[in-house]
Amino acid sequence: MIQSNGHTASASPIEPARDQQGSLECVTTDQWQEFVDSRSESTAFHHGRWLKLLQQHYGFPLRIYAWKQAGEVVAGLPFLETRTLFGKKMLISLPFSDNLRALGKDVTSLSGLRQGLQTTNFGRHVCVLNKTDAPLGFCCTPSGLVRHELNLTRSATDIESGYPRSLAQNLRKAYKANLQFKIRNDAEALEIFYRLHIKTRRKHGIPVQSCRFFSRLHQQMIVGGLGFIATASHCGHVVAAGVFLPYQQTLLYKYAASDGAALDLRPNDFLVHHVMKYGVESPMTKLDFGTSREIEIGLRRFKQKWGAIESTIYNDCLTGRIASDQGDSSAMSIARAVIRNSPSIACRAAGKLFYPFSA
Fold it and tell me: SUPFAM superfamilies given for it (predicted)?
């Protein structure tokens, strides 16, 4: 996956890049959070609690690079240090975070950040990478991923008027089945979601992150008001659930799960429809559906039918290269088949082994 670009670097400490306009420095989480709170375009993925969650759970060292002027942070981008299966170091902005844009007060600030990062010695890292739909413009190539974003500044009625006929029919079916929608933040709701999540991932042959990760997500994000679990229930049983991370103006749809035996009731459509209405009534201005692989045509259609706009995610590499997602390798296809045909414990075990190296 990783290809070297021939860049050689010493293991000496990183020196800040300086010029007359500002300086690039590593800042603390508190300093970063103060800046993040001041930017309306920031998302839950920029938040210090999300960084802390990934740092603590996976043991990834955190570096937050900030462009400072007159001692004030005016732009920045956080990175976590990961390792490949062969032990080589990478700096990724940001693992398990779909899309992370650099934050800046203005174009000039972002230009300063780019200049500072471009002249920084990153030591023995085979790749320094930002996964984003708004690259700063280092060595930028399509990642094979796309994201979808729905504008929530319109009324719910206006958004619904754009629903395709098939979606409107699905919602009528869900209402006829008397599905019930709730927004929850309790531990039991997360446990229910996680059980469905394991089933959903196993069905698709995808490893699942550990129960401990989701417990930390609940403690550090949801309990503190940076997340909630949305559920759709039928006859008292949850048949679809999603984990959402709201912050500033963006509502992130981070995790989704459903009961395969109840899909005929259209619980996923029912859940997203009600979350959309919740978002319209809140201070949120956009619903971010997260990323999909370009080859996942069905998933992309599901997101687009709500009126969400698709954009390309790029691999913006400061050093090194990383291959785009062109589909499963033969080994991954075999692994998916094994997970689909094994007990759920195999799905969880695969996640424990896989995720620390999959960032």
Answer: Acyl-CoA N-acyltransferases (Nat) (SSF55729)
Cis peptide before 94 (omega within 30 of 0): yes
- Count other C-beta atoms under 10 Å from residue 16's C-beta: 13
- Indicate the pTM of the whole model: 0.89
Let me know whether 160 and 262 are in one domain.
yes
Question: Average pLDDT, whole number, for the chain?
Answer: 89
Contacts of 82 (CB under 8 A, 6+ apart): 58, 60, 89, 90, 91, 92, 95, 356, 357, 359
Is 75 a residue whose pLDDT tops 80? yes
Q: Which residues pair with 291 in a beta bridge?
A: 147
pLDDT band at 14 (very low <50, low <70, confident <90, very high): very low
278 and 174, same structural domain? yes
In a domain? residue 306: no
Which residues 6+ apart lie within 8 Å of 166 measured at CB? 305
Question: How far apart (Å, rounded) are the C-alpha atoms in residues 2 and 321?
Answer: 6
Sign of the C-alpha dihedral computed for residues 277, 297, 136 and 226 taken in this order: positive
Average pLDDT on 58-66 reads: 95
Q: Radius of gyration over alpha carbons of the chain, in Å?
A: 21
